[in-house]
Amino acid sequence: MAEKELTFWDHLDELRRVLFRVLGVWFVLAVGYFVAMPYLFDNVVLAPCHNDFVFYDLLRWIGRELDLQDEFFTQEFRVKLININLAAPFFIHMSTAFWMSVVTAAPYLFYEVWRFVSPALYPHERKGVKKALGIGTVMFFIGVLLGYFMVYPLTLRFLSTYQLSATIENQISLNSYIDNFMMLVLCMGLAFELPLVTWLLSLLGVVHKSFLRKYRRHAIVVIVIAAAIITPTGDPFTLTVVAVPLYLLYELSILMIKDKKNGEEDTEE
User: Fold this and answer.
1) Which InterPro entries does the record associate with it (predicted)?
2) Looking at the chain, which terminus has fewer C-beta neighbours within 10 angstroms, N or C?
3) What is the rounded distance in angstroms from the CA atom of residue 193 to the CA atom of residue 106?
C-alpha cells in the first residue's frame, strides 16, 4: 500500500514536532549541564589554565625526548582569571551549559534532519544525504576536540603571556576567557565541515575537482593566513599544528569529489 502523500500543512505540523523534540533534547541536556557545571567548569572549561593540562604535558614530553630547550617546550604555565562583573558568573553558568548542550546534541539534530527529509528523497539521494550527515557529525566533533586540546591552549598560552610593556600586568577576565574559548572551539568544529560543504557544492555543480586542484597553491596561502589569525603566535610550530589539519581538510575535499567524465571536462575547458 502506497504511503499517503502529505499536504503542506502536514509537513508544517511535522516540522513543528521536530523542532519541539530538538528543543526538548537541548533543554534536558542544558539542565543536566547546568547541574554538573561546577565540576565541568573546573575540570573541563578551565583545564587549559592549569599546568597539568594534557597538551602542555605533551609539549614538555616532546621537549625532553628531542632535547629542545626552547621555552615553548619547557614553559610552566598557569592562568588565574578574575571577575569584574557582578552578574557574569551566573550568566556564564547558563550560557556555557546551553553551549555544551548544543554541541553534544548535534548528532540528534542531524538525525532529526535525516528523518524529516528522507521521505522526500529517492533511494540514491537518501544514501548520499545519510553519508553526508554522518561524515559531517564526525568531522564536527574532530574539529571541536582539536580546538579544545590544541588550538585554544596554544592561543591562550600565547595571548596570556604576551606583553606590550613590562609595566603592564596581564589580568584575564572571566568573560574574555569564555568568549575566546567558545569562539575558537566552535570555529574549529565548523572549519572541519569544509570537506562536507565542498562535496555538497560539487553536487550542485558549483565547484569541481579540477578547480580545487588548479587553485591548490592559492588555497595554501589562504590556509596559512587563516591559521595565523586563529593562533597569532610567532613560532612555526603553532602555525604548523593549525595549518596542516586545515590543508589536509582541503585535500580531503578534493578526494571526496568524484571525477567528472571526459565529456564534462572538455565542456568546461
Assistant:
1) TatC
2) N
3) 13
d(CA 193, CA 255): 14
CA 192/CA 152 separation, integer angstroms: 15
Q: What is the pLDDT of residues 172-211, one digit of tens each?
A: 899 989 988 888 888 888 888 888 778 777 776 777 888 8
Residues 230, 155: contact at Cβ < 8 Å?
A: yes
Q: What is the pLDDT of residues 47-87, one digit of tens each?
A: 999 999 999 999 889 888 888 888 778 888 888 999 988 89
Rounded CA separation 236/22 (Å):
43
Burial of 241 (0-12, 13-18, 19+ CB in 10 A): middle
Asked if 197 and 204 touch (Cβ cutoff 8 Å), the reply is: no
In three-state secondary structure terms, 86 is coil
Per the domain annotation, does 4 fall within a domain?
no
Considering the domain boundaries, does residue 140 fall inside one?
yes
Q: What's the number of domains the chain is made of?
A: 1
Q: What is the pLDDT of residues 81-94, one digit of tens each?
A: 999 888 999 999 99
Domain limits for position 186: 10-162+170-256
Domain for residue 264, yes or no?
Answer: no
What's the mean per-residue pLDDT of the chain? 81
Q: Which three cell numbers stand for residue 48?
A: 587549559
pLDDT at 262 over 60: no
d(CA 103, CA 183): 13
DSSP three-state, residue 224: helix
